[in-house]
Design goal:
Length: 351
């Protein structure tokens, strides 16, 4: 089994693999990129992801927008991509080396053939954007690298997903991870459709399922937390150094504070969840004795009295004969005079 896949499967439900997607929120600055790498690492991300593309290879000059232009006013995909496509192979090599130094995984989504080839030297797996789910030439090239592939499924239907998974399997791709995603920026909570995670788990039982989130982060990191509780093994979320910025992917991204909150909530949930066995906890021992009940005499009883149900009443504490054993002593004689409210013991009963 692939080492990365094995590590994913070994994680418990409260420890998903978190990809902080810096994308192009570095705005062409290596310094900003490294700042966000540091922030992501220190706040609990397992991986940082960039985007490797050249506008001339990605979009035609006539490529309409599909985002919220109140936040990002550029109305052309080509013009937007052109703003931040200045990183080259040497920049990504520098960032990959920096990630290695900081002990966080490096990743970048390739959008063209050239990017696939040079990124292969830097990544342990490949990530494919939702919009390239049907880009079979790109998928075929990635499959040839013989590494796990993570597919975002935004704006796709079940037939397309099955066809792409089948295509990759035929290309000998053994490890395919599927991320539920809504391809809308930002996604409102009512449109997040996290039940699709359940759907994917049922339809693709042999694939690891995760979630790529485009909702606005709230104080409880609601979408991400619920996706984890539904079983998402990988979480991908846009990441920024300043959520107040309007352009690019800043406005729907989480920052290092959000990421820390997310990890802290999961730690709390793990603590609350406890173990999978069912035995009393040590801290319950006192309550186990004092809060349970024993068979207590409802009246004074003389020696050799034959015990009847009306002689007994279950009362706390539970350091005498348990009420569940009442039928074992009914009809037997007591061996001495006893007072009302006495907690009956087996030693008080004749054999």
């Amino acid at each position: 089994m692939n080492k990365f896949i094995k590590s994913l499967l070994s994680r418990d439900i409260f420890n998903p693999y978190v990809i902080a997607e810096i994308g192009v929120n570095h705005e062409g600055s290596i310094k900003k990129a490294k700042l966000m790498i540091d922030q992501a690492k220190n706040s609990g991300a397992d991986c940082v992801k960039f985007q490797s593309y050249k506008a001339d290879l990605l979009a035609s000059k006539n490529s309409p927008y599909y985002w919220d232009i109140k936040k990002e006013k550029t109305k052309s995909q080509y013009l937007l991509f052109k703003k931040f496509d200045n990183f080259d192979v040497n920049d990504y090599r520098e960032l990959a080396n920096y990630c290695k130094k900081k002990s966080i995984d490096f990743l970048s989504t390739p959008f063209d053939s050239f990017s696939v080839d040079y990124l292969d030297k830097f990544v342990k797996f490949f990530k494919v954007a939702s919009a390239d789910l049907t880009n079979y030439p790109l998928l075929e090239q990635i499959a040839k690298k013989n590494k796990p592939i993570i597919l975002s499924l935004g704006a796709s239907n079940i037939i397309e997903i099955k066809e792409t998974v089948s295509f990759l399997k035929k290309k000998n791709c053994k490890n395919i991870i599927l991320l539920h995603c809504i391809l809308n920026y930002p996604t409102e909570f009512k449109n997040a459709n996290l039940n699709k995670i359940d759907f994917l788990q049922k339809k693709f039982k042999n694939n690891i399922i995760g979630y790529s989130d485009h909702t606005l982060p709230d104080s409880h990191m609601t979408s991400l937390i619920l996706s984890v509780l539904k079983g998402a093994k990988i979480i991908e979320k846009h990441f920024t150094y300043n959520k107040k910025l309007s352009g690019n992917d800043h406005y729907h991204a989480m920052d290092h504070q959000d990421l820390k909150v997310f990890r802290d909530i999961l730690k709390r949930y793990k603590t609350i969840s406890g173990s999978y066995t069912y035995n009393p906890e040590k801290l319950e021992n006192k309550a186990r004795i004092n809060a349970r009940r024993s068979l207590v005499l409802s009246q004074d009883i003389k020696k050799n009295t034959v015990l009847k149900k009306n002689h007994l009443i279950p009362k706390r504490p539970g350091n005498g004969i348990s009420p569940k054993e009442i039928n074992k002593i009914i009809g037997k004689k007591i061996n001495k005079d006893l007072k009302e409210d006495y907690i009956l013991k087996y030693k008080d009963i004749k054999d």
